[in-house]
Structures are given as structure tokens and as C-alpha cells.
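[job 4471] stage=fold_predict status=RUNNING
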Amino acid sequence: MSEIKILTDSSAQLTPEEIEKYHITVVPLSVTVGGKTYLDGVEITRQEFVEKMSQAEDLPKTSQPPIGRLVDTIKDLTADGSEVVGIFLAKALSGTVDAARQAVELSGKSDLVHVVDSELTDRAEGLQVLAAARDVAAGKQVPEILTHLENIKKTQRLRMMIVNLENVIKGGRLGPISGKIANLLNIRIELQMPHGELKVAKKGRGKRFTMAFDQRVLDDIEANKEKIKEVGISYVSLNGVPQRLLDFAQKIKDINSKIDVLVRETSPIIATHAGMDAYAILYYTE
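[job 4471] inference complete, writing C-alpha cells
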């Protein structure tokens, strides 16, 4: 039966329950670590990846899905005449969204498939995916769904704390950062993604800088507590969920108990570039 289907990539922060509930199709990206390549979420778990990354001599490499895999997925989803809304991680971080657009053309399904650059990743991308899926469940049509996604993008926040700069600098994502900064003792950086571009918002030293970052985020959530329904806290850790992030989640619940907070390990795609002990808070206002 013809319907509207939701497609995304494996960098989106979604729980298995959410994927199953809304019948979301997830195309895996690839990650190479320790000389071996894995399909993200299929051949390696998030915790396994972090363990391998911590032991690897070289920075892991990430790859967008092959065009052929995307073409096949699109053909499968549209075989019954269904329309597809595909939401992918920011173009500034990966060629996945461009690969998806090429796959749409190659499949000859341009009339049925609508590709969206989320301009973000992780739970920010995941929240867009969930919004679209809930719109479908509510009986909304594609134009209304696409408008909703554009409105979400206007108010989305991604605030990331990079504790260890090694991966960021090796990955070359933040070219302007000089080697001198890398050599300074205990320097940390706050990253944001305004309009889909990765930017260094602030730099500082040690735990005091991190605490100030946390407080700025909490202050913004407090100021918008009636407009926020969901917050994602994503992290990179060798030892499970950091207690301080569980405490942070509780502080958000103390601000407004109705806000749903998901604390979950990030994907290998993000962990590769964020580095060990990084974490991010992601949400949007309505």
C-alpha cells in the first residue's frame, strides 16, 4: 500500500524502539578502525567502537553509504508507490546527503523522494526524523512535513563539549585551530552548528570551563522550558554512562518534568570526530 516512509542514516540518534515503532529505515554509514571496516550499527556496536578507537594508533575513518546501497533502498521503499522523506546528517560533516540526492536521480524516483539536509546530526537529526515520523502517523502530507522540518531547523541547538582535542585536530574538521591551542594545558572547546556549519563557539581551560558550559545550556533550557519537549544528551565514553550526565539530565527534569531526556552513547561517526569524553546537548524550541 502506498504511504509516506521515513529514511535516515545511522548517525541519527534513535533508539531501537523508536525505529521499530515508526518503521524508520536507517542506512548505515561505514567506519574503519584498527584496519577493519564495519557497517555502523550492523557489524559493530557503539561501545565496541569506542573500545577499538581507544586502542587504535590511527584516527578511525568514516564513509558515507555507497550510492548503490542508497539506490537499492530507495527502489525498495518506493516499489509500492510510496513517497519517501529522507533526512540526513549535515552536508558540512558528510557527503551522505549529496549521495542520497544522486541516488534519487539514478533510481528515477525524483517525484517520490524528498531529501532533507538536517544541518545537524546525532539526536538533533534524530528529533527531525521523529517529528516527520509522527507527522506521518498523524496523517500529514509531504508538503506539511517538509515545512515542519524547516521550522524545526530554525530553532535547533547543538552544543558540544570537546574535552580531548586530539581527534578534532587529526580529523581536520576545524582547520583554523592552531597547533599552539592543542599544546596548551587542558584546553577544551565548545562547538556549535549554526546553519549547518561546525563552529568553535568558545575555548577555555579545565573543569571550570565545562561547568560554565553546562550552566549556559541549563539557563537556555530554563528560559525556554515551556517550548522544549525533548532533549538529547549524547556522549563518548569507555566506561558506560558518565554519572555527571545523568545528573545533568536530572537538572533538566527539575526545570520541567515534562521534558523527555534521552542520554545515550553517540554513533561511531560522531565519536570519531568528537573524541573521548566529548558530550553534546541537543534540542529545539516550539
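[job 4471] summary: The mean pLDDT is 92.
[job 4471] exit 0
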